[in-house]
Amino acid sequence: MMEEVAKVLSQDDTGWVTVEVKVKNACNHCDNNESCGTSAVAKAFSPKVQQFSVEATESYNPGDLLKLGLPESVLLKAAALVYLLPLFGLFVGAAFAHTLLPLLAVSHSDVVVIPLALLFAFAAWRWAKSLAARMEQDAQPIILAKLGRGI
User: Fold this and answer.
1) I need a labelling partner for 18 at 20 to 30 A (CA). Which of 28, 68, 92, 102 fits?
2) Mean of the pLDDT values across residues 19-45?
3) Would you say 73 and 34 are in contact if contact means Cβ atoms under 8 Å apart?
4) CB neighbours (10 Å) of residue 96?
5) Which residues contact 14 (CB under 8 A, 6 or more apart)?
6) By C-alpha distance, which of 4, 11, 19, 130 is closest to 71?
């Protein structure tokens, strides 16, 4: 289970708590932080804070720190979809083009096969991205512990 510390912003009457999580990236842990181009891009474009709601069974006050947990299987499945489905689409597109071109009496050229394979890969990537987003929406983090008040 992946764990993250979140700060309570508010709680409504239906039992949902709005929390804020500070996003961390791996670029803050390296000695080459100042001279790394990837670090500069990550700092410029990555969101610093995310807010979302979590279902709660207890009452929490604004400012309380909570330990949230999310099963790793959700993130692994989403990553597998986004990386592997486009690769599969690329292979299917190339195979489809190799099969279809001789039937249409089109010269068997890479100029036609490559764009069709890339089109299939792009379509598979878009589909995988929407599936992963739906999968992540369905996976709600859970409150593992109350850590107390922030300083």
Assistant:
1) 28
2) 65
3) no
4) 15
5) none
6) 4
Using CA atoms, how far apart are residues 75 and 59, in angstroms rounded to an integer?
Answer: 29
Residues sharing a CB contact under 8 Å with residue 85, sequence separation 6 or more, in sequence order: 124, 125, 127, 128, 131
CA distance 74 to 18: 21
The one-letter amino acid code at 41 reads V
Q: What pTM did the predictor assign?
A: 0.58
Residue ranges of alpha helices (H) inside the chain are 37-45, 72-103, 110-138
HSE-up of 123 (CA within 13 Å, CB side)?
Answer: 11
Residue 25, domain extent: 2-149
Tell me the C-alpha distance between 51 and 54, whole Å. 10
Answer for the pair 24, 47: CB distance below 8 angstroms, yes or no.
no
Tell me: the pLDDT tens digits for 107-124? 767 788 899 999 999 999
HSE-up of residue 35 (Cα within 13 Å, Cβ side): 2
